[in-house]
Amino acid sequence: MLVSALCQPDVACCGLQTTILEAASLMRHKHVGDLVVVSNDAEDRVPLGIITDRDIVLEVLGAGRDPAKTTVGDIIRRPVVLVNESDDAGQVLDQMQTHGVRRIPVVDHEGRLSGIITADDLLKSLAADANRLAATIARQQTHEQRARR
Questions:
Q1: Is the pLDDT of residue 42 over 70?
Q2: What residues form DSSP beta bridges with 51?
Q3: Residue 41: which pLDDT band, with cuts at 50, 70 and 90?
């Protein structure tokens, strides 16, 4: 299945100069555990990185840094791992496994942010496919039983 069908198009974003305190507040307000860090150009929205609630705890709070003075740009890891909306789920899983990440920004053919895909999104899709397969097997058995009466 294509990433465009699996990803979440509504992405919470911030800029490099956003303070960690502001980022945490935005995460709380949006009920998310990550923000995609984008270029300041609101129209382009080119992903520069991603920051998670775990990054905030480990890199800022755990290190004794001031969240009101530390910016998102101070702690994001680069380069950012990206997938294209035309990639398939297998390619996303490969990227997640290779880079040890659970969330990946999705870009369009021009490199602009179009969504985010998470391990949870892939798991939900896999579970739905497994349920469909189980229903197919059960249906096949029912058809076979009826045909052999």
A1: no
A2: 35
A3: low
Quick one: tokens of 45?
């929205």
Nearest to 73 by CA among 98, 95, 55: 55
133 alpha carbon, distance to own chain's centre:
26
Closest CA relative to residue 27, chosen from 77, 69, 67, 62: 67
- CATH superfamily name and code, 3-119: CBS-domain (3.10.580.10)
Helix (H) or strand (E) run with residue 113 in it: strand 113-118
Q: Where do runs of H (alpha helix) occur along the chain?
A: 3-6, 20-30, 53-55, 72-75, 89-99, 119-147
pLDDT for 77 equals 82
Average pLDDT across the chain, whole number: 91
Contact present, 76 and 51 (Cβ < 8 Å): yes
